[in-house]
């Protein structure tokens, strides 16, 4: 509750919370209801302008754009959450191996992380898609692996720092195994780090899914996706430019919300940042007194 209160006190955090909450609610509602069937076509209503009953208009085949966006939010949530979880698990596993094991294992993991981090997420997804075929799970695993390396690079030094703390040494002396020490002491103390990294992984996943689906490497054509919708509509941008705005705006706002939420989470969960800002405010000098006026 304290973290939520701190997020709510920040404009960026409040914006991120509201947008992410709306997307989650929309994805849940779309499981049971959308204004129209997202797959239903009506050639008599194609390219209808925004209005009633098609609030955001229709596309070339008469499908309701609002219903397509609502159904596509399910894909966005699935990819974002799945990639965030995969990235966190891979990052924690590699970070723990790179910080808490024998020296030769640590050095091997460090080299592996340096090699993997050189490959962009989209390239990894395209390589996997070439072998396995395009699907949402390819995007989830590609983003999870690609961003999991970033999580490992951030969590590894944090784990090495925390493992020399008194409570970790006391836990080791009391008979805790390395795994028990990791779960009970180390991970809770570096939780803010990988929580923030997970939010950034979700933003990357949303953008990667849209880009890969746009290029034909992501969701299949039968799955509702903002990237596929954007690819379908952009061919008619010169004739019906407003139709392209809606999926592009949805992708942009969602990625922005996840990024801002990640920044706000970092500020809300990192005590060193709060302490530093408090000291800056306390040390900031007040306004200079006017000439001839004494305090």
Overview of the structural elements:
The protein has one domain: MetI-like (MetI-like fold, Orthogonal Bundle). The radius of gyration is 24 Å and the shape is elongated. It contains eleven helices and no strands. Helix 1 packs across helix 10 and helix 2 crosses helix 3. The chain is mainly alpha-helical and 295 residues long. About 3% of the residues have low confidence.
C-alpha Rg (nearest Å): 24 Å
Count of individual helical segments:
11
- Secondary-structure element sequence? HHHHHHHHHHH
Instruction: Describe the sheet with the most strands.
Output: none
Keywords: Cell membrane, Membrane, Transmembrane, Transmembrane helix, Transport
Membrane topology: Multi-pass membrane protein
Protein name: Nickel transport system permease protein NikC
Domain ABC transmembrane type-1: 73-262
């Amino acid at each position: 509750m304290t973290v939520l209160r701190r997020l709510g006190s920040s404009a960026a955090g409040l914006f991120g919370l509201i947008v992410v909450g709306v997307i989650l609610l929309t994805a849940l509602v779309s499981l049971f209801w959308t204004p129209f069937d997202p797959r239903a076509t009506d050639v008599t209503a194609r390219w209808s302008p925004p209005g009633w009953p098609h609030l955001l208009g229709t596309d070339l085949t008469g499908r309701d754009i609002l219903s397509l966006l609502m159904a596509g939010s399910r894909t966005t949530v699935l990819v974002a959450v799945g990639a965030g979880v995969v990235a966190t698990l891979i990052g924690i596993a590699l970070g723990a191996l790179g910080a808490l094991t024998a020296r030769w294992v640590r050095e091997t993991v460090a080299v592996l992380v340096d090699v993997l981090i050189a490959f962009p997420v989209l390239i990894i997804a395209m390589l996997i898609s070439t072998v396995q075929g395009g699907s949402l799970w390819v995007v989830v695993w590609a983003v999870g692996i690609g961003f999991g390396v970033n999580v490992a690079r951030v969590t590894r030094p944090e784990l090495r720092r925390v493992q020399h703390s008194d409570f970790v040494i006391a836990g080791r002396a009391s008979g805790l195994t390395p795994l028990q020490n990791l779960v009970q002491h180390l991970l809770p103390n570096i939780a803010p780090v990988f929580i923030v990294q997970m939010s950034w992984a979700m933003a990357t996943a949303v953008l990667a899914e849209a880009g890969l689906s746009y290029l034909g490497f992501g969701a299949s054509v039968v799955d509702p996706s903002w990237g596929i919708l954007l690819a379908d509509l952009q061919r008619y941008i010169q004739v019906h430019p407003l139709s392209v705005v809606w999926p592009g705006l949805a992708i942009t706002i969602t990625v922005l919300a996840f990024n801002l939420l990640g920044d706000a989470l970092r500020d809300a969960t990192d005590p060193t940042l709060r302490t530093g800002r408090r000291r800056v405010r306390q040390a900031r000098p007040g306004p200079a007194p006017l000439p001839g006026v004494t305090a």
